[in-house]
């Protein structure tokens, strides 16, 4: 899966990454933007539209391209973490006849329980629709 990144979005991604002052071997070698340092794999969107997952610290496996569902998850989380709403526009359009996801009600995120540390609801990308907000 490869996203077509409009020039305006590319400029926003470069500005956010520059403001963070962040770079690593993946951002440099792949011309990529860190979307989520993650509790699991770090995830990136490359300037040419690929989503990469870095699980080297966890599994020792090399950086790999995300599956289509993983890629949607990464974009949804990345939009939240970077504050760049334009990332949502990269996602595949809702197919005709698709139903709004029952679990997240189309919000892409699902909240459950309470985080003992912050007292706030724990929120993750919806496991039912993988962040699409709809099910086909
Ligand atoms: Zn959902």
Tally of individual helices: 4
In this entry the ligands are: zinc ion
Q: Pick out the low-confidence regions.
A: none
The run of helices and strands is: HHEEEHEHEEEE
Average pLDDT works out at 92
Q: Span between N and C termini?
A: 18 Å
Largest sheet: 4 strands, antiparallel
Radius of gyration, CA atoms, in whole angstroms: 15 Å
* Beta-strand percentage range: 15-25%
Using the alpha-carbon principal axes, give the shape: globular
Strands of the widest sheet, in order across it, are 1-2-3-4
- Per DSSP E runs of 2 or more residues, the count of β-strands stands at 8
Number of domains: 2
Structural class: alpha+beta
The helicity comes to 25-40%
């Amino acid at each position: 899966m490869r996203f077509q990144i409009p020039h305006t979005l590319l400029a926003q991604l470069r500005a956010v990454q520059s403001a963070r002052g962040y770079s690593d071997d993946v951002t440099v070698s792949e011309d990529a933007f860190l979307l989520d340092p993650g509790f699991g794999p770090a995830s990136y969107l490359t300037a040419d539209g690929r989503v990469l997952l870095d699980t080297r610290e966890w599994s020792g496996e090399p950086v790999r391209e995300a599956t289509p569902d993983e890629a949607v998850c990464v974009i949804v989380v990345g939009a939240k973490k970077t504050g760049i709403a334009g990332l949502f526009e990269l996602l595949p359009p809702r197919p005709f006849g698709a139903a709004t996801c029952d679990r997240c009600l189309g919000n892409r995120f699902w909240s459950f329980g309470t985080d003992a540390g912050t007292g706030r609801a724990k929120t993750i990308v919806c496991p039912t629709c993988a962040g699409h907000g709809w099910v086909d």
